[in-house]
Amino acid sequence: MPLYKLRIEAADLATGRPIADLLEAASTPPALAVALFELAPPTYVVEAYYDQSPSLDAIARLLDGLGAGLGGPVLEAVPDTNWVALSQAALPPISAGRFIVHGSHDRACFAMHRRAIEIEAGEAFGTGHNATTALCLEALSELVRTRRFAHVLDLGCGTAILAIAAARALPDARVLASDNDAIATAIGRDNARLNRVAQRVEIVTATGFAHARLRRAQPFDLVLANILPGPLIALAQQMRRALARSGVAVLSGLLDHQVREVVQTYRACGFRLLRCTRSGGWAALTLLNTRA
Fold first, then answer.
1. Which pLDDT belongs to residue 127?
2. Dihedral angle, C-alpha 58, 63, 64, 68, nearest 10 °
3. Which pairs from 28-36 meet CB under 8 Å and 24+ separation?
């Protein structure tokens, strides 16, 4: 299989993060893997791997507006090798709130850490290196400082990273996770076993709230949904009904300019905005359900 590597140097970590996030979110063509790592302090480098050659002009347009501190994008063909292992080994561990997310290559470093979560880059979304996942982990970390949640749902779970984090942070909670992609739910179950929370995290294949298991589990105290603004807006009324009064929804997958519409929609359904956090052009919302 042909493989191409795009490489962009960044002046520092704050410059490199939005580059990595934009390349990971872009779909023309989609990146197979994106890595951000330190080159020589304070310089960072972003590498993205593709199975078809991306247009450097399109990449330049995508990154236009990020400002100074970017090197020119360099594209090269990669020799036929085990690129999956190589790209995963390049992913550094990340810290998000009280959690550390790492790949198997860093297992020995974090084996004894109570909040360490092992997630490999794969077919499902959610390795913690995307800003939206990190923002959700940070929101969860902040919430559990002052509240306890007994019934948690990770809606659109991808790798199930948020469900695993909830199980780690809330040892007495029942955690349910769902995704409309059967491949993602299979990966999620593997990750739950790998992280030793499989007995406390149940994962089902479902679209939105349309599954008998999700209906029986309601009301939830906490729903984590790192998906897209369109589905979040469409699910607003169902989200309110699925949450207990004073239940909390953490929503992400939003670009900065999409926040206003999502907040307005949820306010109209009886939610109150508790917190909005932002990183690299992305945002996460923490909302309180004020209706029964």
1. 53
2. -140
3. 28/54, 28/58, 29/54, 31/6, 32/3, 32/83, 32/87, 33/83, 33/84, 33/87, 33/88, 33/91, 33/121, 34/129, 35/87, 35/90, 35/91, 35/129, 36/92, 36/129
- Expressed as residue numbers, the domain containing 170 is 94-289
Give the distance, in angstroms, between the CA of residue 92 and the centroid of all CA atoms in the same chain: 16
Residue listed under structure tokens 């299989």: 1
Burial tier of 77 (Cβ tally within 10 Å: 0-12, 13-18, 19+): exposed
Same domain as 186, residue 161: yes
Last residue of a domain, one of 43, 67, 90: 90
pLDDT 10s digits, 248-286: 999 999 988 999 999 999 999 999 999 999 987 889 999
**How is residue 72 annotated by DSSP?**
P
- DSSP result, 212-223: HHHHHHPSEEEE
The Cα 160–Cα 176 span in angstroms is: 10
CATH number of 68's domain: 3.30.70.260
Show the CA angle centred on residue 188, arms to residues 186 and 189, nearest 5°.
65
Using the 8-state DSSP alphabet, how is residue 51 labeled? S
pTM for the full predicted model = 0.69
Q: What is the pLDDT of residues 119-173, one digit of tens each?
A: 865 544 555 557 889 899 999 999 999 999 999 999 999 899 999 999 999 999 9
**Dihedral sign (CA 245, 251, 255, 258):** negative
